[in-house]
Amino acid sequence: NKTKYVYSDDNGLTWSVPQNVIGAAYIPYPKIIETADGRLWIVGRNNYFFYSIDDGNTWLSKNLGFNTSMTTAFDFISIDSTNYLMTYDKYDSINDKYKIISRKSSNSGESWSDETVITELDRSEKRPRLFQESNGTIWLITQVSELTPFTQNYSIYQQNISYRKSSNNGELWDAPIDF
Questions:
Q1: Is 67 exposed, middle or buried (CB count within 10 Å of its CB: 0-12, 13-18, 19+)?
Q2: Spatial distance between the Cα atoms of 127 and 134, rounded to a whole number of angstroms
Q3: How far is CA 95 from the centre of its chain?
Q4: pLDDT per residue over 8-35, tens digit each?
Q5: Strand 157-166 to strand 177-178: parallel, antiparallel, or no bridges (unpaired)?
Q6: CA distances from 43 to 31, 62, 155 (A)
Q7: C-alpha–C-alpha distance, residues 139 and 162, integer Å
Q8: pLDDT tens-digit map of 70-114
Q9: Considering the entire predicted model, what is its pTM?
Q10: Distance CA 154, CA 34 (A)
């Protein structure tokens, strides 16, 4: 499996031939974004991001500089041309729960801050997705695992969606709201 991309330069009437992002790279659950500095980024479930500075004609890999699981789900947004916000899920084996982690970059993704745990202690969340409104409000949507009557005997959890928002570039987050 290789991750491929296609593009259209005529509002979707026609599409390019599928092209590999980079060599034999497979990026599980890829998401492509454009940051305020004009770079294209592909993030997914791995310890690398892929970026292009020439509208996707060539791609470079960027090691994040820290290790996560191969099943870690990443997302990130551009606050401005140099400041990025990243979120990902991480398994907490001590509490048997998944937590949403955030990190920030103030140098266009060259390096990242230490981890900040967003998830409350009693929750288990994964698969974060970030959305930013034009007014700067950032929304974080996650999948929440909740107990069911079958959890104790069969380890069956219900998966729901929750969201929370930040009005200060991810420094602080409102309490989560479940759908």
A1: exposed
A2: 23
A3: 23
A4: 999 999 999 988 877 656 777 788 889 9
A5: antiparallel
A6: 5, 10, 30
A7: 10
A8: 778 889 999 998 999 999 999 888 988 999 999 999 999 889 999
A9: 0.85
A10: 43
